[in-house]
Automatic annotation (TrEMBL):
This is Unannotated protein. Pfam families: Pyr_redox_2. One of its GO terms (molecular function) is oxidoreductase activity. Residues 6-127 form the FAD/NAD(P)-binding domain. Gene3D superfamilies: FAD/NAD(P)-binding domain. Transmembrane segments: none annotated.
Length: 412
């Protein structure tokens, strides 16, 4: 097969940037042109949003230039995507620009959609109803918490899957510590509301988190499927007609993939692209991969998953475009730091098959502890911001195993 081929990457966030930078090193420039498309130049370090409401991070620490983090040889086109025409291998932008491709990577992530829950955006949005999954939301919540004098604080997850499944718990733990430090914890009644039967999907981790919530005097309302928010009465109403009153609601709205995915008929009902769980190739088109939060794999939507996914994907992509079968399998590997407040954090490491277990990470000697609150884990979480910008985004290798390892973990 002669001639130059085009690889088009939609989305210049975590997965899109890593894939672009790694592939630029792996593909010969005379064989492949790589182009990235994104709506703007603001690349956000999303794990930082959790700290913004409490004043721990400043805005400039969580936002950098997309252009600055992409290999100089890769063009970055700014524009909103209208639709993909997969049969014609073309992408149309809203400004009328058309881009052809030989291979397409969809890496446009997911975004919170408060418009999908009746009553959520009506009247109380950014007043008594807030979210921290966007830059704007975390800034607005910081402003609110600065002067809030207490009452009923409800943290609510609308529906799974969401970006970073442990972030709502982290927010809860950090809020508890924040109010203690302000000397007003006794004036705040906290309730954690989840559609899950417990605080987390994996039993061992759920037990650890659950006892931490108990210790902190935080009530849990589980199996709560929200039907609507009543902004006048300030209550959450579930399908089984339970009502939970709030003075301040911090919600995690339904997370959905980009609207162009729906217009292109490439997604499921949440606009996530159905892919093979192990190769990340679209189930419908062998010219399309979906990486990071944009796909429908049953793994956490978290930066660590995007990182481990991309490492496996690069080898598969090279085999696939050479006409060979893909021999590498992504195992669903995720690891997440969970801030528990007062400069401590827990760490979990798991994959499709293995739930989070106690032990040490990344090696038998640590230095990090799994499923335990430690100061070292907190420092690890803070250090990760530097690692994200300087090691992961440029496409350098990390000294941790790509596939989940049982080394250092407690066996059943």
């Amino acid at each position: 097969m002669g001639g130059m081929r085009n690889l088009l990457i939609l989305g210049g966030g975590t997965a899109g940037t890593m894939a672009a930078n790694k592939l630029r090193k792996s593909l010969r420039p005379q064989d492949w042109a790589i182009t990235v498309v994104d709506a703007d130049d603001a690349h956000h370090y999303q794990p930082g949003f959790i700290f913004m409401p409490f004043g721990t991070y400043r805005p400039e620490q969580v936002t950098k230039s997309r252009r600055a983090h992409l290999n100089k040889a890769i063009p970055l086109i700014y524009g909103s995507i209208d639709r993909v025409l997969p049969d014609e291998r073309r992408v149309l932008l809203e400004d009328g620009l058309e881009l052809g491709y030989d291979m397409l990577i969809i890496a446009t992530g997911v975004t919170p959609r408060p418009d999908q829950t009746p009553g959520m955006l009506e009247g109380e949005w950014h007043e008594s109803i807030h979210e921290f999954y966007t830059y704007e939301g975390s800034m607005a919540l910081a402003e609110k918490l600065r002067t809030w004098d207490g009452g009923r604080l409800v943290i609510n997850i609308v529906e799974m899957p969401i970006k970073c499944p442990v972030a709502p718990l982290e927010f809860t733990f950090l809020a508890d510590a924040f109010f203690q430090d302000k000397g007003m914890r006794d004036r705040v009644q906290m309730t954690y509301v989840t559609p899950l039967p417990g605080v987390f999907t994996k039993p061992r981790a759920a037990a650890a988190f659950g006892s931490t919530l108990d210790d902190k005097g935080i009530a849990v309302e589980s199996d709560f499927m929200i039907e609507r928010v009543d902004p006048e009465a300030k209550t959450l109403v579930s399908y089984d007609e339970r009502e939970i009153p709030f003075d301040l609601l911090v919600t995690i709205p339904l997370n959905m993939g980009a609207d162009y995915v729906a217009r292109s008929r490439l997604g499921n009902e949440l606009n996530l692209v159905p892919v093979d769980n192990f190769t990340l190739l679209s189930k419908d088109y062998d010219t399309i991969f979906a990486l990071g939060d944009a796909n429908d794999i049953p793994a956490s939507k978290a930066g660590s998953v995007a990182h481990f996914e991309v490492d496996v994907f690069i080898d598969n992509f090279l085999e696939h475009v050479a006409g060979q079968p893909m021999s590498h399998r992504f195992d669903g590997h995720a690891n997440c730091f969970i801030e528990t407040g007062h400069k401590k954090a827990m760490l979990i490491d798991f994959n499709y098959e293995v739930e989070p277990l106690p032990g040490r990470y990344p090696y038998r000697i640590g230095p990090l502890s799994l499923l335990k609150e430690t100061r070292v884990n907190h420092l690890g979480k803070l250090a990760f911001r530097w690692t994200y910008w300087n090691v992961l985004m440029p496409g350098h290798s990390m000294p941790v195993p790509v596939h989940m390892s049982m080394s250092g973990k407690a066996k059943e």
